[in-house]
Amino acid sequence: MTFLAIKNISKRYGPVHALDGIELSVAAGSRTAIVGPSGSGKTTLLRIIAGFEIPDEGQVMLEDQTLADGPAIVPAHRRGIGIVSQDGALFPHLSVAENVGFGMERGAQDRDQRINALIDMVELDRGMLDRRPHQLSGGQQQRVALARALGRKPRLMLLDEPFSALDTGLRENMRKAVARVLQIAGITAVLVTHDQVEALSFANQVAVLRDGRLIQAGTPQTLYLNPKDRETAIFLGDAIVLPADLGNDAVSCVLGRIPADTNGRQGRADIMLRPEQLRLSVVADAGTEAVCIGKVTDIEFGGAICTVTVVLSNANGLETLNIKSSGVGLPEIGSVVSVTVLGKAHIFDKLGA
């Protein structure tokens, strides 16, 4: 069921076309991540949904209510939308309890109980209720900001890069905690982020913007394994892009014959493999026959996941690959290895010449 519908939204700032005909649907109770490089239009789109910006064209529909129809809009304070920003935007002169209760009726009999329930929901200690924001860690401040936004019982939650100021480990924990809280509360959420890993792990749907246009939207697995084009593939993670000849349910390239959904297509095309699809095995005899043989020229140790640089020797010359490998049992620099491919290759839409 479509909960939030964005229809043909366009926005210009003078000669700059910030958004160009954006079409996106968000299901009820889902989490959607909007990603893209700087200047792609993702923050502008979030601000239009929130009511802070006015679209030049198009509609924003929330359930059965029209929030924007071109320049005619519903004011932000009447939209029933909660927002959590990068810095949390807590009131420094108010306590945690006062921040969480901001917007609630002061005379309400259940006000204190609701504040306590929200603090429990975001997994904070009630002993923090009398503290001021400067006495909290970054992660605790973001939890308070989330509790405050939830206190207004929003129909939709907008998250504007809320984890980007946090340390890596804390960022991951906060991402999981926020996703859990939103799921328990049954609130639909839209996240804007520049962090691809964050988008893929947090969302049920990922939408990629580039130059003000929606390039692709779908499940994280679909976009990661079947990106529409090379730019999207590289933006969402490390990618190995190779030219290949298309055959029957397979492609032929420097790595040999790899299964692929060719759908009857013939000719040449660029294919994509994710580095984790490649597996290395040390070859004892350098002269042994194998589908693909190479030499390890460099290793970037990264703990659990390392990057091994392999130079392939083949009839067409040399090809350099960066392959993700476990930190256990790494080959030595200079060793000869065979390279095998797991799973299928992805074929980009545009055929090569």
From TrEMBL:
Q: Does the keyword Signal apply?
A: no
Q: Which UniProt keywords apply?
A: ATP-binding, Cell inner membrane, Cell membrane, Ion transport, Iron, Iron transport, Membrane, Nucleotide-binding, Translocase, Transport
Show the InterPro entries listed in the entry: AAA+_ATPase, ABC_SmlMolc_Importer, ABC_transporter-like_ATP-bd, ABC_transporter-like_CS, ABC_transpr_FbpC, Mo/tungstate-bd_C_term_dom, P-loop_NTPase, Transp-assoc_OB_typ2
> Sorted alphabetically, which Gene3D superfamilies does this protein's record hold?
2.40.50.450, P-loop containing nucleotide triphosphate hydrolases
GO MF annotations in UniProt: ABC-type ferric iron transporter activity; ATP binding; ATP hydrolysis activity
One Gene Ontology term from the biological process aspect of the record: quaternary ammonium group transport
- Asked if Membrane is a keyword of the record, the answer is yes
- Name the domain of life this protein comes from: Bacteria
Q: What cellular-component terms does GO give this entry?
A: ATP-binding cassette (ABC) transporter complex
Enumerate the spans annotated as ABC transporter domain. 4-236
Annotated PROSITE patterns: ABC_TRANSPORTER_1, ABC_TRANSPORTER_2
Q: What family does this chain come from, according to its entry?
A: Belongs to the ABC transporter superfamily.
What is the protein named? Iron(III) transport system ATP-binding protein
Task: Provide the species name.
Answer: Rhizobium lusitanum
